[in-house]
Design a protein that fits this description.
single chain; AB_hydrolase_fold; alpha/beta; three-stranded antiparallel beta sheet; about 230 residues; 10 helices
Length: about 230
């Protein structure tokens, strides 16, 4: 039996920097089992404009209202792409939720006191990567080491133009939003997540997990996405 939500909402998942869309696999499987139409954007993370365009190409294929989900830098992408009229709601998963004129670069330039900056380093001209030796601890502390090592060694270089891409009009000002705060995140400090979610007026759920909570706690991530989807009925 197909879940009723299939007729009401499509779910579009947007990954962040340093990774690709494959990390959403377990979340995807849970949502598909529950009858949802789910698509995963393989945004190139080369520039905000390129990533928004990749996301909007997927949105354009949908007949139902779209629940747009972003992890980490993917939150910037959905904040911009979410202005598409097909988008009914936004879901931020340990993500940046910038205001007008803000970018990841502008948000992280003033670190939260007492926190350790992420181990970001150059990865070729115009691109950034995470120190492979520190990837597990910083990005995916609650993911099994062999999987975290694979993620570290299959990194997608993150474009400086994506890091510095500024939002023109934040969709959260006109669309309802949900926000999952990962309370043991070492990439985006939880206080920063809490501040951004409060500013956006999001419905907030806090879950103990690393920055890679979409990999380590797929059930919790799927649950908040389903809550957003149910709201569009």
């Amino acid at each position: 039996m197909v879940h009723l939500a299939t007729a009401l909402a499509s779910i579009v998942l947007v990954h962040g920097g340093f990774v690709d869309g494959s990390g959403w696999e377990d979340v995807y499987k849970i949502l598909k089992k529950d009858g949802y139409d789910v698509s995963i954007v393989q945004n190139p993370t080369t520039s905000l404009a390129d990533d928004v365009a990749a996301t909007k190409r997927i949105i354009a294929t949908k007949q139902q209202p779209v629940i747009l989900v972003g992890h980490s830098y993917g939150g910037v992408v959905i904040t911009e792409a979410g202005n598409d009229p097909k988008v009914a709601a936004l879901v931020y998963i340990a993500a940046f939720a910038p205001d007008k004129g803000e970018s990841v670069g502008s948000i992280i330039k003033d670190p939260v006191p007492g926190t350790t900056p992420p181990p970001i380093q150059p990865a070729g001209e115009g691109f950034l990567g995470l120190d492979k030796a520190k990837f597990h601890e910083a990005f995916a502390a609650d993911v099994k080491k062999d999987k975290a090592d694979f993620m570290a060694n299959s990194q997608v270089p993150w474009g400086v133009n994506a890091l510095n891409g500024a939002v023109t009009e934040p969709a959260w000002k006109t669309k309802p939003s949900w926000y999952l705060v990962a309370t043991t995140d070492r990439m985006i400090p939880p206080p920063a997540q809490q501040a951004m979610s409060k500013r956006a007026g999001s419905t907030v759920v806090e879950v103990a997990g690393s920055h890679a909570i979409y990999v380590s706690k797929p059930q919790a991530v799927a649950s908040i996405i389903k809550a957003a989807a149910q709201s569009t009925k």
